[in-house]
Amino acid sequence: MTDSDDALFARLRIAQEEIDPMPADLADRMIAAIAIADVSGEYALLTLIENAEVAVRGDSETTTLQFSDGTASILLHISHTASGRRRVDCWVDAGAVEVRLTQGGRSWMTVPDGQGRCAFDEIPPGLSRVLLVTNADAKDLLTPQFEV
Questions:
Q1: Cα Rg for the chain, rounded, in angstroms?
Q2: CA distance 146 to 63
Q3: What are phi and psi of 143, to 5 degrees?
Q4: Do the beta carbons of residue 55 and residue 136 sit within 8 Å?
C-alpha cells in the first residue's frame, strides 16, 4: 500500500462515519441477542420427557430423552446391547433430512424414514451429542451433551 492509498482509506472511513455511523447501542444489542439465543436454545434443548425413567449416568438399562427448540424436536431411546454398547433409537420431526450422533472426534450419520424414525447401532458408551439437520426452512437442532 502506498501513502496515497492510506490517505484514501482514511478519507473513506471518515466519510462513512459521517454519512452512516454505527448505532451507539449496536454492540450491546448484538451481545444481548446472542446471549438470549444461546440461553433460550440451551433451555429448550434440556426438556426431558415427563414421567420417564431418566438416568443420564447410572446403571439403568434404558434412557429416554427429548430435546426441542420449539420448532424441531427429537426423542431418543437409549438401550444397552449384549455387547456392552448402546442402541440409540430416534424419532424426529420438522422435516429432518439427516441425524448425526457424535462422540468426541467420532461421528455416525443416518437418514430418518418417512415416519421420522432412525437408529444407531453398536454405539460405544460415552458423552454424545445429536445434530438434527432439517430442511432449508427450519433451523438445525444440536443437543447438549448426554451420556450414552
A1: 23
A2: 10
A3: -80, 160
A4: no
Per-residue pLDDT at 63: 87
Q: Give dist(CA 79, CA 85) in Å, integer.
A: 9
The C-alpha cell of 50 is what? 415427563
Q: In what order do the strands lie in the sheet with 86-92?
A: 62-68, 73-80, 86-92, 117-123
Answer whether 33's CB lies under 8 Å from 50's CB.
Answer: no
Please give the grid coordinates belonging to residue 92. 424426529
Tell me which DSSP letter residue 137 carries: T
pLDDT mean for each 10 residues of the chain (148 residues):
83 89 83 67 50 47 85 90 94 86 95 92 94 80 89
The pLDDT value given to residue 41: 56
**Residue 71 one-letter amino acid:** T
Question: DSSP assignment of 35-77, as one string?
Answer: HHHHHHHHHHHTPPPTT----SSSS-SEEEEEEE-SS-EEEEE
